[in-house]
Amino acid sequence: MKKNWESPSSQESDAGTTRERLIKAGIEEFYEKGYKQASLRKICAACGVTTGAFYFHFSGKQQLFSAIVEPVIELWTSLGNTLADRELKDQSTALDNDRAMMDLELRHRREILILLEKSSGSGKENFLDNLKQGLKKHFMTHFTTAIGHVPNPEFIQLLVDMRIYGNIQLLKGNYNRAQTLFFNDLLAHYAEGGFTYLIQNCKERL
Predict the structure, then answer these.
(1) DSSP code of 22?
(2) What pLDDT was estimated at residue 14?
(3) Residue 116: CB partners within 8 Å, gap ≥ 6?
(4) pTM
(5) DSSP readout, 61-112?
(6) φ, ψ for residue 125, nearest 5 deg
(7) Which tens digits make up the pLDDT trace of 87-129?
(8) Is the CB of residue 83 less than 8 Å from the CB of residue 97?
(9) Burial of residue 174, with CB atoms counted within 10 A of its CB: 0-12 exposed, 13-18 middle, 19 or more buried
(10) Taking each helix axis from N to C terminus, what angle separates 109-117 and 61-89, rounded to the nearest 10 degrees?
């Protein structure tokens, strides 16, 4: 009698496909419901797999969440650090840097919005606060270099909040890719003009 069997490579392929489907369904569920309200049962149902199959790939909701957001955090952090260093060395790169960052954010729009707005209850729920702290540190260094003294940290925090929440609104907006990049360019030019004005006219009061 001929035995039914699958090659190891076929089994690995099926396992990989199931894991990818769970990640894709997880992105949709976390984006719609947020981490706290996300249902593993609904994620499994969307993939047509059992909860047993889910636990073959992930230990629980947190591990699935981490599998979704951690690769994006790594990409985002790496690019952010590279662009920040480049801008500190050459201010003329600011607009290109903004475009590069928005391009990355658009490619991972849902994962980033999950991190920024829907991660409460997860191991990444402090990500937004940490992002603000990192951007504030960069802004403080940037302004200190430009004006020759440490700026008012409360004012810098306002600039940080404007930057982050402006980006969130761009990512949440009902715009196509071209519109989003165009609006991002306009905001970047606006920010650049504001920065120039501040260091030329308000240096002593900052």
Answers:
(1) H
(2) 57
(3) 127, 128, 131, 164, 168
(4) 0.88
(5) HHHHHHHHHHHHHHHHHHHHHHHHHHHHH-GGGHHHHHHHHHHHHHHTHHHH
(6) -70, -15
(7) 888 888 989 999 999 999 999 999 999 999 999 999 999 999 9
(8) yes
(9) exposed
(10) 100
- For 105-145, the DSSP string reads HHHTHHHHHHHHHS-TTSTTTTHHHHHHHHHHHHHHHHHHH
Query: What is the number of other CB atoms lying within 10 angstroms of the CB of residue 160?
Result: 21
Residue type, 36: K
> How far is the CA of 201 from the CAs of 138, 144, 194, in angstroms?
21, 15, 10
AA letter at 174: N
DSSP class per residue in 5-72 = ---HHHHHHHHHHHHHHHHHHHHHHHHHHHHHH--HHHHHHHHT--HHHHHHH-SSHHHHHHHHHHHH
Find out whether 19 and 57 touch, Cβ atoms under 8 Å: yes
DSSP letter (8 states) at residue 58: -
Residue type, 2: K
Tell me what pLDDT residue 132 has.
Answer: 95
Helix 40-47 vs helix 61-89: crossing angle, to nearest 10 = 90
